[in-house]
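Weekly structure sync - notes
Attendees: PM, LS, DV (DV joined late)
Agenda: review two folding runs queued last week.

Item 1: First target. Sequence and structure tokens pasted below for the record.
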Amino acid sequence: MMPRPATKDLALQLRGYRLTTAKILYHLPDHPSLLQTFIWQQLDLAPNFPELCRFLGFWQREIEGRLHSVTVASAGLVGPAEIRMAKGEFRLH
């Protein structure tokens, strides 16, 4: 997946998207008694997390490792009240 431009990420954050990290534990297909960890991180909308749900749906359809558990952490990085226009510009040569 190609990284998004920073301006698009900022626009998403201003619309309420938050940095979401999911720690996914899954069973190894060849050794089901062993667990492996996968870390997923993307901007997503709390509390429903549609991007994470879409990814987990893909996982269940396409990946052989059966899900064991998913732990989610989400943090807002910027909000509309935290952005303001600069009142001046300084240049150093």
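Item 2: Second target, run right after the first with the same settings.
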Amino acid sequence: MKTRHKRMAFILVGLAGLGVAAWLVLNALNSNLALYISPTDVLAGDAPKNQTFRLGGLVVEESLEREDDGLTVHFKVTDSANTIPVTFTGILPDLFEEGQGVVAQGKMQGGVFIASEVLAKHDENYMPTQVADMLEEGEKLNQQEQAGGSATVVPQTP
């Protein structure tokens, strides 16, 4: 076998190995993929069957019920159009409360979403105190300028 043929065989074996490795990685990623789906999409039948996915929305006010075991909770998640009942056994995150955003990971079972994990979302309107204070001072300055005053606002340092 000539050197040129050996080199070509080596390159082909390397490309085949690279192809197999890429296929294995993509297959593993696809099997572990958890899609984010709204209650409307779930009720429309767009949720994957017998596969884990993430249900996201707001916890419906006054829907939280705890069982006597202290770990099992039932609540409802809504996207303002449709509502899905959720059951979760475990410790809820500190930020979890009614009326707040939540993402629950699990599977649908008999019209109820059985969550294996619950993630609470913080308020998207959160702003650090220093930034809020600076914006407030800037708004006061704008109001004074519009009123015809030429006052100077000196920012306070913490």
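Discussion on item 2: The chain has two domains: 1-33, 36-120.
Action: LS to circulate a short write-up before next sync.
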